[in-house]
Recover the amino acids of this structure.
């Protein structure tokens, strides 16, 4: 059928999709997923307010479940299921994905009753904001609230945060938060990654959790002349998201590509694809993006392309700038790649059909200096070493 096969068993959803009232913090949601009897597994994604919070490959007939744990107020929870069968062309997978949506009112039955219930920071007996106790029973910035029903007053001069984790020393002036100064030092635990810091000296710079995707092709070439190294990676997975609002935006955020050995250890190389090289294409909300750096001004990656639900491809060449990843072992085994832009990452693990896995000569006698793989299956993302 034009809309595809429903990959969520009708009637298996718990609770039934639609508007749902739930006590704080939200509770359990589930549904039975459907897919090919002989595999491959389908990809499930749970989205809270448009942001992917969990992904999992699940076999036919199994249950996809999620424990919603969020703040008091209205939220949207979506289950999205995508068939990874090779018979479905990658360019149409996103268009035939199945989904269920719950509009979840969390804790609203109790908020505004004048009693401090679980999850509430205050409760002044009404749902009006601007008086210190917000409409969803959270204490507003630069206010303090005590008692039940809550009585609120400004905290003039108190420390506060406007939400920018890279600004320190902000304080309340009346009921407004401001001032402070930018954080410039590399220190773990402040939720800020200043310019010049890396995951090696500031774990706040560590990569975000990655969405696993299938891989169409990975080619890594090495040579006794390092300037002849090459890297090409391509995926045509429907989970590649460049939609406005929830997807990646490398024009705004730039991007990076990491190649690493999935068997563990620290062997890894990372490339920056800065925002200056990216251009948007297409029409919102399903934008595509192209990267071009044929002069290798920003690194060895000369071209990249992202198409929503269709394509992720990056090509790098060590003609001018180095690719600091050698094939000087007899074999690599399994290699993984991770593409990151902003707070979103996608990873593919090759695996799949390995056509050639041979080290360089020297030091490996007779080595061909090439790792070539295709059709990487959907597997969980292996841990990635920190990028320098």
């Amino acid at each position: 059928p034009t809309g595809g096969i429903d990959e969520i068993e009708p009637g298996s959803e718990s609770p039934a999709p639609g508007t749902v009232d739930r006590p704080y913090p939200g509770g359990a949601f589930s549904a039975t997923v459907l897919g090919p009897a002989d595999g491959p597994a389908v990809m499930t994604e749970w989205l809270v307010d448009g942001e992917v919070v969990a992904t999992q490959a699940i076999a036919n007939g199994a249950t996809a479940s999620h424990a919603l744990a969020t703040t008091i107020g209205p939220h949207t929870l979506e289950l999205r299921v995508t068939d990874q069968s090779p018979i479905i062309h990658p360019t149409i997978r996103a268009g035939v994905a199945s989904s269920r949506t719950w509009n979840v009112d969390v804790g609203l039955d109790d908020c505004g009753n004048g009693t401090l219930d679980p999850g509430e920071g205050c409760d002044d007996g009404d749902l009006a904001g601007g008086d210190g106790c917000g409409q969803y029973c959270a204490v507003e910035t630069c206010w303090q609230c005590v008692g039940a029903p809550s009585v609120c007053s400004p905290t003039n001069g108190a420390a506060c945060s406007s939400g920018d984790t890279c600004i320190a020393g902000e304080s309340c002036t009346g009921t407004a938060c401001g001032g402070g100064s930018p954080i410039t030092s590399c220190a773990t635990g402040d939720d800020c990654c200043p310019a010049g810091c890396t995951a090696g000296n500031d774990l706040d710079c560590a990569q975000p959790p990655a969405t696993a995707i299938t891989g169409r092709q990975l080619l890594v070439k090495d040579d006794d002349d390092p300037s002849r190294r090459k890297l090409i990676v391509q995926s045509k997975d429907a989970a590649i998201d460049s939609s406005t609002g929830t997807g990646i935006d490398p024009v705004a955020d730039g991007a990076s590509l990491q190649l690493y050995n999935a068997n563990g250890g620290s062997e890894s190389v990372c490339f920056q694809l800065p925002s200056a090289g990216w251009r948007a294409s297409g029409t919102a909300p399903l934008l595509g993006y192209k990267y071009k750096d044929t002069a290798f001004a920003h690194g060895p990656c000369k071209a990249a392309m992202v198409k929503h639900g269709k394509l992720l491809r990056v090509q790098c060449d060590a003609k001018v700038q180095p690719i600091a990843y050698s094939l000087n072992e007899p074999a690599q085994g399994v290699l993984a790649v991770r593409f990151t832009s902003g707070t979103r990452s996608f990873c593919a693990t090759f695996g799949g059909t390995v056509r050639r896995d041979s080290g360089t000569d020297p030091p490996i006698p007779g080595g061909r200096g090439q790792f070539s793989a295709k059709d990487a299956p959907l597997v969980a993302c292996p841990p990635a070493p920190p990028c320098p």
Q: What stands out?
A: Residues 209 and 345 are 7 Å apart (CA to CA). The mean pLDDT is 88. The first strand starts at residue 18 and ends at 22.
